[in-house]
């Protein structure tokens, strides 16, 4: 999606944090890809594999520094980090309109890597939501990884889809979905898969309506998405499907799935985009309908 160049942010709570060295494992190498695959398969804490175990905040730069260099939509169009910061504003305004008593998550833009209560955050672990902190961690370098190793273009809407998906997990946290449906277990009909597919659907619903949110001057933050941009987001969803990721290792095992297949992720994003939030109940339907 394209931001209107004249849209103004008017302050941001997003922070930049990082500075840890991830044990010499390079994102361009097979080691980085293997670590990312393991994290996507298990959803676990892989800090130990990166040589970053111990105190979850040891070596981090505290709460980080407030990002102050993203002021207009033009900044968001030219810079991945500013795109995330502006995306945070639009997502917060959207969800404040749809969830009573909404409280915003913290967004941390990771510079290199940093420790969290949920493990290490870096481009190698991929973006994630940490429920104990109610914080989303994204390293913009992850988008380069999508392009080079997962055959996804990772254009502007694909990047915002990634952020909106993690916001979906925050909505699940604050509305009690996690408590009612613990995202444990694996397999194509598991709560873990249902949780991820619902987050994809919530992201799709947001994308459909995001252009309705306006800044303090009444200027829409975003232009409506083009068909090409929506395809880009669908490609990003498919790129992180369990079957697509496992196929790169040579063996597809549906019983180990935690996020859903590429086809499922496309379909649930599209369900939200086409039919809104009411289409996003992934927990009350039979597994054959997922």
Automatic annotation (TrEMBL):
InterPro entries: Uncharacterised_pept_Zn_put. The keyword Lipid metabolism does not apply. It is a single-pass membrane protein. The keyword Lyase does not apply. Its main location: membrane. It comes from the Bacteria. The chain crosses the membrane at residues 20-41. One of its GO terms (cellular component) is membrane. This is Neutral zinc metallopeptidase.
């Amino acid at each position: 999606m394209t931001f209107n160049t004249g849209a103004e942010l008017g302050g941001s709570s997003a922070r930049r944090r990082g500075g840890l060295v991830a044990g010499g494992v390079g994102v361009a190498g097979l080691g980085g890809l293997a670590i990312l695959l393991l994290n996507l398969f298990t959803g676990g804490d892989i800090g130990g594999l990166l040589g970053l175990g111990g105190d979850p905040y040891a070596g981090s730069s505290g709460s980080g520094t407030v990002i102050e260099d993203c002021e207009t939509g033009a900044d968001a169009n030219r810079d991945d980090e500013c795109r995330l910061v502006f995306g945070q504003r639009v997502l917060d305004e959207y969800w404040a309109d749809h969830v009573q008593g909404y409280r915003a998550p913290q967004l941390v833009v990771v510079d290199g890597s940093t420790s969290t209560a949920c493990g290490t955050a870096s481009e190698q672990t991929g973006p994630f939501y940490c429920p104990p902190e109610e914080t989303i961690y994204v390293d913009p370098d992850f988008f380069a990884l999508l392009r080079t190793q997962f055959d996804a273009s990772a254009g502007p809407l694909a990047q915002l889809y990634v952020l909106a998906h993690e916001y979906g997990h925050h909505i699940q946290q604050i509305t009690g979905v996690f408590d009612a449906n613990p995202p444990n277990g694996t397999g194509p009909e598991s709560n873990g898969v249902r949780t991820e597919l619902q987050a994809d659907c919530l992201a799709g619903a947001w994308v459909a309506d995001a252009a309705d949110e306006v800044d303090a001057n009444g200027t829409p933050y975003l232009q409506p998405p083009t068909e090409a941009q929506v395809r880009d987001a669908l490609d990003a969803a498919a790129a992180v499907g369990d079957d697509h990721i496992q196929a790169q290792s040579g063996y597809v095992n549906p019983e180990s799935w935690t996020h859903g297949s590429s086809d499922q992720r496309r379909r649930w994003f599209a369900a939200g985009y086409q039919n809104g939030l009411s289409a996003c109940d992934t927990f009350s339907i039979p597994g054959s309908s997922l």
